[in-house]
Write a sequence for this structure.
């Protein structure tokens, strides 16, 4: 992952939210100098920090990491995989209660599929 590109994305999202470095740093629990180094690509951003940035800046995680050049070729995602990633990113922005509701609905769909005798469908484990 290119840290400079990631830093530019962090900065752009922060500016879009009209937040200062001090405000964002406080919101994600780091120092202003650490955030400055993230934005300049001088410091590695760990997943826990990316999750906080995603939440505070109202951006899905893939906003910060998609389209980075990698050392190895990645197979392209099919349309179902893209839909699943979109759903995951949407769920990430929900409250705990809403996530519980989504989980309950998924469990219901799995139960319904098994009860209906189609346990070989995509929801079966």
């Amino acid at each position: 992952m290119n840290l400079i590109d990631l830093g530019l994305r962090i900065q752009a999202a922060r500016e879009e939210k009209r937040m200062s470095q001090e405000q964002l740093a406080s919101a994600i629990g780091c120092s202003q100098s650490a955030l400055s180094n993230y934005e300049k690509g001088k410091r590695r951003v760990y997943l826990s920090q990316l999750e906080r940035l995603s939440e505070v800046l109202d951006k899905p995680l893939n906003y910060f990491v998609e389209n980075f050049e990698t050392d190895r070729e990645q197979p392209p995602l099919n349309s179902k995989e893209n839909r699943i990633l979109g759903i995951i990113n949407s769920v990430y922005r929900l409250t705990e209660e809403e996530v519980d509701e989504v989980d309950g609905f998924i469990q219901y769909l799995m139960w319904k599929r098994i009860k209906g005798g189609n346990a070989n469908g995509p929801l079966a484990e």
User: Anything to note?
Assistant: The chain has two domains: 3-65, 79-115.
